[in-house]
Each structure stands twice: as structure tokens, then as C-alpha cells.
Design goal:
The structure holds two protein chains of two kinds. Chain A is an alpha/beta fold. Chain A is built from twelve helices and ten strands. In chain A, a hairpin with a 2-residue loop joins strand 4 and strand 5. The N terminus of chain A is likely disordered. A six-stranded mixed beta sheet of chain B has the order 5-6-7-3-8-9, sandwiched between helices. In chain B, strand 6, helix 7 and strand 7 form a beta-alpha-beta unit. In chain B, helix 4 crosses helix 5, helix 4 runs parallel beside helix 6 and helix 6 runs parallel beside helix 7. The N and C termini of chain B lie far apart (48 Å). The relative contact order of chain B is 0.16. The C terminus of chain B is likely disordered. The chains are: A alpha/beta, B alpha/beta. At the A-B interface, helix 9, helix 10, helix 11 and helix 12 of A face helix 6, helix 7, helix 8 and helix 10 of B.
């Protein structure tokens, strides 16, 4: 097993905020997430890129200990040397929402519809900071001010349905960041939002994690969002990390054919005379349990051959038998 | 260049009365489309861009004849707006009846519009044109992936031989690796069937890629209109500039702190 801190130093990053080792998630008999190992460094923003069925949300839920019944995770998720997967629910509750927090895609379903915004934002402060009464209220108000919710004093008493989508997402970010978590997971936090609101929310997220030195894991299918927000990236396909590295390396010089194809499939914005045809990836993303054995991308990959019947190991950068030069 | 006008929208206005929020106050009125005028010419590809609440969906419904304007009018110069203007919606899973076989789904417009002819032959043509295997005909929508379902929805829209195809966020619900296939398919069909394409989208990179002309909408009004290339290169309205500045771009990390 690699020593995560020396590993981090070698890459010139900060200390490890969260170490994930050989994390696998099973959905019944099917292994949906396979042996993921990665390190989230303090103060670093990491993008987890994946399409439907890639296992990106399952990975986040497994880290948070929030997998639904019937799903099980193996491996280790180490926070300050303690394995979250082996922890009792009681111990986990002391960390979750405090040191480790998550922002969900659809704030309308993640927020409690019959609870005022102020009370929801105050909840983690009551639980983890033992704040009560006016102290809890004023701390919640500060949290809402930090996320630049307009008219925060009045919105404390609003219910989620009275806010716009962007405002709801701000409220959820206020809730998730109220206790200054060391690790913040954000699962498609802006996918449901308009592009101008998305830009504001992403700026806000980056500002908050920078200010507190938190580590951000941004889970999304949107490559340009990762390019704008993150420093490191993990590319997930069929539950495997197929490529990892700095955003600059991976986006300007992808080594895995899947990453290359994803980048090519995005319509260019700045071309003067764009061609109306895009290089498309053949086939479709297989459903859960329908990925081919071996390399999960091999049935859509132009470079695949007999060697790809076996899953290639992930070296420093890429898991591919025939990586691009 | 053929400058035949297919649609002429003149001072289109559509208002909705909002539900009552206070018992003794008058109901408020939302003007979803506010005095909108434009022409859609044949063989043009038009992008309709706006954020939620901009009125782009209401405007699309006015073009489809699914909404009636309160003021102004929209004139379709072809023969039958109902037959010749078809639409593909964002989410193919909710746009296809789960209890119907693919053949019935694709041929339903022909049945409803009482279009005569060899329907089985037409079905084969449509499956082929949209890249679906012929064996799809007997299967049900749930047996297909999102991208294939969108192909089924496109085949259905093409069945009555439309002249105008409206795509309402046609790739937004699809996986990134599948989007390019559907965009390429739409482009092939546009050229192959001489379609005039209207693309309603919030995704500016898709609009930039697919359209010749673009309308930027905000609060029910058109704030900017012009050739797509010019609007993207030199936006005139501050809102257009804000929209363009908000798009996350690839490989800009180096320019950020």
C-alpha cells in the first residue's frame, strides 16, 4: 500500500484530506464501481467525470456512507487515518455534515420542503457546533450571507419552493459549508441551472473551498465545467478510473481513447467556420452490468484488440493497453 | 439563395394569468412572449436561445400551433402547419408512449393525420434514415438506450414528411458520448430531407455548431438577432455578452488563477 502523504508530496500537492483505497460498490450481484483508488488533497479541486452508469454518484454516496439498502461498498475511505467504511453509523454521523459534506444535484429534492431555509442551514450547526437559539440563527444567517443569497434575513423564513433554482442551490451550499468541511463533494451541482446562474454558483463554490482550504470533489458529466473549476481530474467509465492527471495534462493531451473521444464530441465554440459534423463515439453507454469484461470501453474503442479482453492496470495516468502518445 | 419565408411572426404576444397568491389581490399576469417578430426562411437553421423563463418554449409552442397568441400573429406559408411542422422534445423517455411498439409510435402521425400510402415501406425508410435496426419496429421504447429513443422520436417527427423540424433541447438529456451522434444525425437529415431546422436550446455550443441564425431571448423579448457567427463573434447586447461569458470553456484553466 502506498503512503498517501509521500505520494501527495511527490505530486507537489498539499496533505491528503481523504484517501480512497480500492473502493468497490456492488449493486446486488453486479460490481458497479471497481477498485477505485485516489487521493483528495487539502485545498485541491478534483473533477470526477463520468456519464450515466459510470458509477460517479455511487462513488460519492459510498464515500459519504449514504448508499441505499442493498448496495454495499468494500475497500477503505480514510479520513485522518480512520476508515469511514468501517465506522459505526454513530461515529459517521459525527463526521458527516461537519468534516465531510455533500451538495446534491437537485436541491428541490435534497432540501426538506416543510422546513424553513434558516432552520435547515442551522441544522448542521446545531448538531455539530452545539449552537442553540439566536446563536444558531445568526450563524445560519452568516452562512446564507456567505453564499450571497439575496435578502438573507427574509429568506431565512422562506420554504424551499419559494426560492428559485439558483437560490435553492445557494441555500444547499450554505448548509453543506456551514461547518467548513475538510472535504466537500458536489454531485452535478449546476446541471439543473441556467448557464449564467451556473457560472455564479461555480465561482461561489471555488471561492468557498479556497477560503477554507477544503478539498472539493466535483462530480459531473460536463468537461468544460471541470476545465474551469478543477486542478485535477478523474475520468470514470464503466466503474473504472480510465484516466487521471492534472486538468491541463488530461484535457490538452488525453491518453485514453475515451477521454479523447469525449473532448472531440464537444462542439467547438471558437472555431471560425465550424464543420457541421462532429467526431462521434460509436455505440451507446451500456447499462449497469452490461459493460464488456476487460476494458469497459473496448466495444466502442477504435484501438481495441485482443489485449483489451483483460482490464489494463491504471498506471500514473491511464488505464489502457494502447494509450494515445 | 432561396429566401422563401416559411414562418412570419408579427408582434407575437402571449400572456399567462398566474395563480392567485393573495386572496384579495388581483392575479398577476406573466407576459411570456412579448411583442416578438421574426421571419424563418426556408433551409435556414435557426437557434432559439434563452434561459428558463425567457419565453423560448412558449414561442416554440406558438410556432407549433399549440398555443394561440393574445396579440399579433404567426403565419405559416406552407400548406398544413399540422403536418409540415414537427417537433422532437428533450426527454425521449417521457415523449414516447411506453405501451406502444416502435412501429406504432413512428406511424402514429400518419394515422392521426390520415396520410395514405405504404406505411410499412415508410417505416423501413424512417428506421434506416435514423440509423435504427429494422428489428426495432416490434420492440418497446424501454428496450432502447436514451440515444436510440431520441432516434425513434426523430423518426416519428419525420414520418409525415415535415418541412420544418423543431428540436426542443434535443440532446440535453443525452450522455455526452451520444450527443454528437444525434447532432450529426440531425445535420444529415436536414440536408437529406431539405428540412428547415429550429433548435431551441440553452446550450450555446450546440447552437453555435448547428445554426446559421440565432435569436437570443430574455424575459419574453428578443434582445439580439443575427447570423450566429456574428452574434457569437461580436455580441451587441450586454445580456448576450453575459451569456457568452458564462459558458465554461475547455482549456481555460491556465488563464484562471
Amino acid at each position: 500500500m502506498r503512503d498517501s502523504n509521500s505520494d501527495a508530496e511527490r505530486r507537489g500537492g498539499g496533505p491528503a484530506a481523504l484517501v480512497v483505497e480500492k473502493l468497490s460498490v456492488r449493486v446486488g450481484p453486479i460490481e458497479a464501481v471497481h477498485d477505485l483508488s485516489f487521493v483528495l488533497e487539502a485545498g485541491q479541486r478534483t473533477g470526477l467525470i463520468g456519464e450515466s452508469g459510470s458509477g460517479k454518484t455511487l462513488t460519492a454516496l459510498a464515500i459519504m456512507g449514504l448508499l441505499p439498502d442493498g448496495l454495499s461498498a468494500t475497500g477503505r475511505v480514510l479520513y485522518k487515518g480512520r476508515d469511514l467504511l468501517a465506522m459505526s453509523e454513530r461515529d459517521l454521523c459525527a463526521i458527516r455534515g461537519d468534516r465531510l459534506a455533500m451538495i446534491f444535484q437537485e436541491p428541490m429534492t435534497a432540501l426538506n420542503p416543510v422546513m424553513q431555509i434558516g432552520a435547515q442551514v442551522a441544522e448542521p450547526l446545531r448538531l455539530h457546533r452545539q449552537l442553540r437559539g439566536s446563536a444558531a440563527r445568526s450563524a445560519a444567517l452568516q452562512a446564507l450571507e456567505r453564499v450571497k443569497l439575496p435578502d438573507p434575513a427574509a429568506q431565512m423564513h422562506a420554504y424551499p419552493h419559494q426560492l428559485s433554482g439558483g437560490q435553492r442551490q445557494r441555500a444547499m451550499i450554505a448548509m453543506a459549508t456551514a461547518c467548513s468541511p475538510a472535504v466537500l463533494l458536489a454531485d452535478e451541482p449546476t446541471t439543473a441551472l441556467d448557464v449564467t446562474v451556473q457560472a455564479q454558483i461555480l465561482d461561489l463554490l471555488v471561492g468557498l473551498v479556497e477560503e477554507r482550504g477544503s478539498s472539493l470533489l466535483l462530480i459531473t458529466h460536463d468537461l468544460p465545467v471541470v476545465a474551469n473549476v478543477c486542478q485535477r481530474v478523474l475520468v470514470l467509465y464503466g466503474g473504472h478510473i480510465v484516466e487521471t492527471g492534472s486538468v491541463d495534462e488530461v484535457f490538452s493531451d488525453p491518453r485514453h481513447p475515451y477521454t479523447r473521444a469525449l473532448l472531440d464530441a464537444i462542439p467547438p465554440l471558437d472555431d471560425n467556420e465550424p464543420s457541421r459534423k462532429l467526431p462521434a463515439i460509436p455505440g451507446t453507454v451500456p447499462g449497469l452490468g452490461e459493460f464488456p469484461p476487460g476494458c469497459p470501453f473496448r466495444n466502442r474503442c477504435p484501438r481495441a484488440d485482443a489485449a483489451c479482453m483483460a482490464m489494463p492496470p491504471l498506471d500514473e495516468r491511464v488505464a489502457c493497453w494502447h494509450p494515445l502518445a | 439563395m432561396n429566401e422563401e419565408v416559411l414562418f412570419r411572426a408579427e408582434h407575437l404576444t402571449r400572456r399567462f394569468r398566474l395563480p392567485r397568491t393573495r386572496l384579495f389581490e388581483p392575479r398577476r399576469v406573466l407576459t411570456a412572449v412579448d411583442d416578438v417578430s421574426f421571419d424563418l426562411t426556408r433551409d435556414q437553421t435557426l437557434g432559439l436561445v434563452g434561459e428558463s423563463g425567457s419565453g423560448k418554449t412558449t414561442l416554440m409552442k406558438l410556432l407549433l400551433g399549440l398555443e394561440r397568441p393574445d396579440e399579433g400573429r404567426v403565419t405559416y406559408t406552407g400548406q398544413s402547419q399540422r403536418r409540415e411542422v414537427q417537433v422532437v422534445f428533450q426527454d425521449p423517455s417521457s415523449a414516447l408512449d411506453p405501451r406502444m411498439r416502435v412501429a406504432e409510435i413512428i406511424l402514429e402521425p400518419l394515422r392521426v393525420l390520415r396520410i395514405e400510402g405504404d406505411h410499412q415501406e415508410r417505416l423501413r425508410e424512417l428506421l434506416e434514415a435514423t440509423g435504427l435496426p429494422l428489428t426495432s419496429a416490434r420492440r418497446y421504447p424501454h428496450e432502447f438506450s436514451g440515444g436510440q429513443r431520441q432516434r425513434i422520436a426523430i423518426a416519428r417527427a419525420l414520418a409525415p414528411r415535415p418541412r420544418v423540424l423543431i428540436g426542443d433541447e434535443p440532446v440535453s438529456a443525452l450522455d455526452v458520448s451520444v450527443r454528437a451522434q444525434i447532432l450529426n444525425l440531425l445535420e444529415d437529415l436536414r440536408v437529406g430531407f431539405h428540412l428547415t431546422l429550429v433548435l431551441v436550446s440553452h446550450d450555446l455550443s450546440v447552437v453555435r455548431h448547428m445554426t446559421d441564425r440565432v435569436l437570443i431571448m430574455r424575459h419574453g423579448k428578443i434582445v439580439e438577432e443575427g447570423p450566429t457567427r456574428d452574434v457569437f463573434r461580436a455580441p451587441q447586447h450586454p445580456y448576450t455578452r453575459l451569456l457568452l461569458d458564462s459558458i465554461p470553456r475547455l482549456r481555460t484553466q491556465a488563464s484562471r488563477k
